[in-house]
Amino acid sequence: MTRELQARAYLAAPKAMGGSWTRRLRGGVLTGLAILAFGAMCADLKLAPEAMLAGADKLGRLAASAFPPNDGGDLPRILKALAETFAMAFAGTVIAAIAALPLGILGAKTVVGQPVLHFAFRRVLDWFRGVPALVWALILVSAFGLGPFGGVIALALADVPSLAKLFSEAIENSDPKPLDGVRSAGASPLMVLRYGLAPQVIPVMTSQVLFFLESNFRHAAVLGIVGAGGIGFELEERIRIFAFDQVVFIIGLYMLCVAALDTVSQQLRKRLA
């Protein structure tokens, strides 16, 4: 870089090009500490090339046995499991959206203006958001036994806090002018919500629910591996008997379904935007 270019760069971004030596020293120390921390984590997790090479031979044999993929004569059963997985995702998302709607209204600052209550309510939602669907599924499968019931409830429980938070933010970000306009016409509070608030927030909420449906279709497969039924159960069964040609077939079919659902969901969300 020539001196002229350096001077122009300094004029354009003086903080990036210059700075005191203490700032540079602090940046160097922080970078060094970050590299040391990364190295310590790799050592603790045993992320070494030797570990990769030790399993590479076995991985290669498994990959060779996976081709050509085939359905093992169980195509109807696999398709039924895919339908069951979608049903789990759909039911879990709908239950979560219904349960999250009143919580989202209560969590909005514009509805409950008391700061302490609002803070406490949001922290409770944050606390429950920290529990992933897999943990809920393990608990519920232990309680209710194997099957999709535990998976549906696990998906719903994992989604309710997140959807409630998103719904409350959608309500808080709504434009107050339409609400004031309907209110000034002498409408009741219910009519204000119906004609002032709902047209603004329903497209946003619907878009968020569709996004969670996509996500839940992927999560439902993982829940099946821990006993919640669906395509995850079929995968787990075949991995256990080393039928990797059927595993690859199921994964390919599942990826096609995920791509189709993503495409439909994206188109619907674009129309709602």
From TrEMBL:
Its main location: membrane. The keyword Lyase does not apply. Keywords: Membrane, Transmembrane, Transmembrane helix, Transport. CDD domains: TM_PBP2. InterPro entries: MetI-like, MetI-like_sf, PhnE/PtxC. It is a multi-pass membrane protein. It is found in: Cell membrane. GO terms for molecular function: ABC-type phosphonate transporter activity. Residues 82-265 form the ABC transmembrane type-1 domain. GO terms for cellular component: plasma membrane. It holds the Pfam family BPD_transp_1. The chain crosses the membrane at residues 86-112, 133-158, 241-261. Belongs to the binding-protein-dependent transport system permease family. This is Phosphonate ABC transporter, permease protein PhnE.
